[in-house]
Amino acid sequence: MLKIKNIYKTFNANTVNEKRALSDLNLTLNKGDFVTVIGGNGAGKSTMLNAISGVWKPDYGTIEIDGVDVTNMPAFKRAALLCRVFQDPMKGTAPDMEIAENLAISARRGGKRRLVWGCTKGEREEYRELLKQLDLGLEDRLSTKVGLLSGGQRQAVTLLMATLVKPKLLLLDEHTAALDPKTAAKVLKITDKLVTENSLTTLMVTHNMHDAISYGNRLIMMHEGRIVVDVSGEEKKKLTIEQLLQLFEQGSGSAFTSDKQMLSK
After folding, report:
1. pLDDT tens digits for range 1-44
2. In Å, how far from its chain's centre is CA 238?
3. Is the pLDDT assigned to residue 112 strictly greater than 90?
4. Which of 100, 130, 197, 232 qualifies as a FRET site for 257, CA 20 to 30 Å off?
5. Domains (ranges, CATH) in the chain?
6. Given a cut of 70, is residue 206 above it in pLDDT?
């Protein structure tokens, strides 16, 4: 479903601020893979998602989504193939529009637009049933403007929007990092439910080692723009944080030093 081959990206090349962000990055995801991504600051996690999303073109290498070469495809054209949920709950929604209206926009992603009512009565009933599964009481607040929701509620709605029209690829960019621990745990459970029930191929970047191990069927760890740890299946299920740190040291040749992630163990 996703094939990243020999991707390189350097920012501010040939200047004193030159930064190699991705270095010979290679990654293949099969359909339905739920992959967690972890690494220290500057490891290349979000940079990789930006490459997949089309925020910028790689200096070298290719990216394919479901067999389609998207390396040079503009970001807006990739909207029919992928969805991305950001760390900031304020992104990804129209805050001055109702919950139902936001969902209606997502339901039309990648399709042709016509001059009709933005949200029909039948759609509102459909959205009411979908919102029930979030268990946040939002099914009775269809007319509430999204900007009035809490961060957790908004992120849950954003997840529902991202999966309403099943994308080929779902990108989650530390989507619980801005939430308090209790709310983050709730949103992660909703994430796991939506991803699993819809068999969505997913890349989830997280700063939390425990979450990286607990969720998904595969875990990759990045360092200096490349993947240094890649575990899946039974090996991942039995993995401990201490073992993960050992694998990182073996793969990178250095100790893991991210204070933020060490504290989140």
Report:
1. 999 999 999 999 889 999 999 999 999 999 999 999 999 988 99
2. 24
3. no
4. 232
5. 2-81+167-263 (3.40.50.300)
6. yes
